[in-house]
Amino acid sequence: xxxxxIVYKDSIKFILSGGKGGVGxxxxxxxxxxxxxxxxFRTLVLSTDPAHSLSDSFDQDLSGGEVVxxxxxxxxxxxxxxxxxxxxxxxxxxxxxxxxPEAQMAxxxxxDMTGMAPPGADEAMAFGxxxxxxxxxxxxxxxxxxxxxxxxxxxxxxxxLLDSWLGKVLTLRQRLSSMMGGLKSYFGGGSDEEDDSWxxxxxxxxxxxxxxxxxxxxxxTQFVVVMIxxxxxxxxxxxxxxxxxxxxIPANKMIVNQLVPSNPSCQFCTxxxxxxxxxxxxxRELYSDMDIIEVPLFDREIRGVDELTKLGEIxxxxxxxxx
Length: 323
Known about the structure:
Distance between the termini: 19 Å
């Protein structure tokens, strides 16, 4: 089985590459991005992992929180999300920075409302980018290099958490608005200016619900699980897949990465090979309902577009030689 039917499918807008730390998620995301762009899709690859390595994979500085054109392409861009900058943008989107009469009253009665941080604040910043790109027609496809499993699970549970959190914020603001309306009437009027931050909160709530629909549509979104044939990675992958299933996020492709070749003349290599093959048999049995792409261990670092291209060729079954 290959990744061709995902990477070359016109309707796929989002591809997420995820798994345990150290299994090669970034290289896989980069390789899929190169395949996507070379097939003609306007593609953005971005890293939501706080420990970014996307710049290393492309051998190009993609830091700073801004979209950067990838050298050698006119339809491929990359970005490493800047945590501080992204979180501020997301808070601004939620209208937390607004100062209106309701916010002033909240500050007097129960403390500054801007202190009500959303749950999973670090991941909320990354999710804010997903919301941004759902409505952005600039790209045919967005490929996410996600953080290790624990952070990714927090990211993917955010639609439900933020929906609930925003509901509480909206209820609070509605009560304060009603209270202010009564005071304005009592004191003879006051400003009737439209509260833009109130609208922003409601619009964001709608966007979050739209994101939940997009992320659960197999014709729009695919999660590609990346793992290595080691016991700890198998356990963590089971946890990841269970949660993806619970949140109805499509995931039927699995990359088993860094498979060492057989080498009878090397005792250490033979032990590693036998261990991996044993785990690989378990993986094939456990995930028999998934398409498994087996990727050999490269004899060099995967760095730069040429190496990512070679990795991508393995994904779609077009490699010319074993690496």
